[in-house]
Amino acid sequence: MKPVRVGICGLGTVGGGTFNVLTRNADDIARRAGRPIVIEQVAFRSLNPECDTTGIRTTSDVFEVATNPDIDVMVELIGGYDLARELVLTAIENGKHVVTANKALIAVHGNEIFKAAHEKGVIVAFEAAVAGGIPVIKSLREGLGANRIEWVAGIINGTGNYILTHMRDEGRAFEDVLAEAQALGYAEADPTFDVEGIDAAHKLTILASIAYGVPLQFDRAFTEGISRITAEDVEQADNLGYVIKHLGISKRTEAGLELRVHPTLIPKERLLANVHGVKNAIAVMGDAVGPTLYYGAGAGAEPTASAVVADLLDVARDISTAHRYRVPYLAFSGIGDDVNKLPIMPMEDIITAYYLRLLAVDRPGVLARVATILSEQGISIEALIQKEATEGELVPIILLTHRTREKQMNEAIRLIESLADIAGPVTRIRVESLDEQE
Ligand SMILES: NC(=O)C1=CN([C@@H]2O[C@H](COP(=O)(O)OP(=O)(O)OC[C@H]3O[C@@H](n4cnc5c(N)ncnc54)[C@H](O)[C@@H]3O)[C@@H](O)[C@H]2O)C=CC1
Ligand SMILES: N[C@@H](CC=O)C(=O)O
């Protein structure tokens, strides 16, 4: 059968991995796809020393690939928003299928890109955009296609989980572990995307769109990163029986969809609490199947390449089918008026339990004043740790609350921070028991 001809744009971590996996496993891939998948052209700024491009057409102009009539599928691995958008739209305009690992691109410009692809009858596949090598998009789109999805929750940033794991287990400094994750090729070009939760919010936006059949709404996601987590929080969470993980959480509720990314206390015995290093794990609850869990490498050259090449295999199989019969890539059906109108809930309406850490002046009555504020907001305390005070020092007070509405907690924190006995901002970490979820 006629080969599928691929053009790769970008030969960095993922581009290099994709090039090497496609080359090394060419025979197996051809057997699985029913036809060979060949690299026709590669565009890069500087050659990746791990890739032997001998005999392959190369260029420094990515648009040469997007417009090359000898190419069936363009693989976008340059990253970023604007140039990648222009490149992908050019490839679509030129009738090419597109495979990308670029979650920023899909989360922010996906609605426009899918509309263009739908009109042109081409495929835009993006398995590698969420959770590296874990086939969670395929699982949601196809394996769980019979289910009404109730919630999706998971660790979806490998760099962040790598940092939290090594800070906890080895007591290492944040910056030191981040530099290591960058050297290993896990981090984004701008690592603030990893540590401030933006990358995870991109991924959660994509997962929610597929899970519930809603348009991509990155601008509605609540996003908080791990940069303010201290060693003290990690230790106190441990004392209370919890582990701090950075989670993306999306739940279907009667009021709409929750879409939130933030550090979270999870009970130590939960599966997600035991996912370490660069590994990601996503739990999905379907009404028919119940809870399911997807686990594996969330970043890195060849794990991510595994997902990119899986998309190429899908494209190779799908292009022999009329496009209206293909599994829709984004939501439930074509891009049009029939999209699901489930609203994204305001963060103020989210209900969860909280871990609070405050620094208090050691004076009689301070705890009573804090407890009164919480009680006046209808918030009850589940556990409390107050450390011994040393003369003249501020005392950390750790509180674990029962579930309450975010709006009430915002007001309680505002009032606590205004007390003369309290120094500095209150640290708040949300708690997910995941009880009803696993
Ligand atoms: N590194 C990882 O583990 C993962 C990365 N991704 C995504 O994959 C994409 C690529 O990421 P990495 O490979 O890590 O980045 P990278 O920075 O290692 O590679 C990007 C490559 O594209 C090249 N490039 C950029 N603009 C170009 C242009 N105009 N013309 C030619 N070459 C150009 C750069 O020189 C670089 O070699 C990003 O969208 C990223 O979010 C997704 C999953 C995992
Ligand atoms: N920077 C990302 C790469 C994969 O998506 C991460 O660390 O998860």
Architecture overview:
- There is one protein chain.
- This protein is α/β, with parallel strands linked by helices and 438 residues long.
- The chain contains 14 helices and 18 strands.
- Strands 7, 8, 9, 10, 11, 12, 13, 14, 15, 16, 17 and 18 form a 12-stranded mixed beta sheet that branches. A 6-stranded parallel beta sheet has the order 3-2-1-4-5-6, with helices on both faces.
- Helix 1 crosses helix 12 (301-318), helix 7 (158-170) crosses helix 8 and helix 13 (366-376) packs antiparallel against helix 14.
- The two termini are 46 Å apart.
- The site of the ligand N[C@@H](CC=O)C(=O)O has 11 residues, from helix 7.
- The site of ligand LTNE7NMQ has 11 residues, from helix 7.
Low-confidence spans: pLDDT under 50, at least 5 residues?
none
User: Quick one: how many beta strands?
Assistant: 18
Quick one: overall form? elongated
Helix content: 25-40%
Helical stretch tally:
14
Q: Report the radius of gyration as a whole number of Å.
A: 24 Å
Distance between the termini: 46 Å
Largest sheet: 12 strands, mixed
- State which percent range the strand residues make up: 25-35%
Mean pLDDT: 93
Computed structural class: alpha/beta
Give the distinct bound molecules.
1,4-dihydronicotinamide adenine dinucleotide, ligand LTNE7NMQ
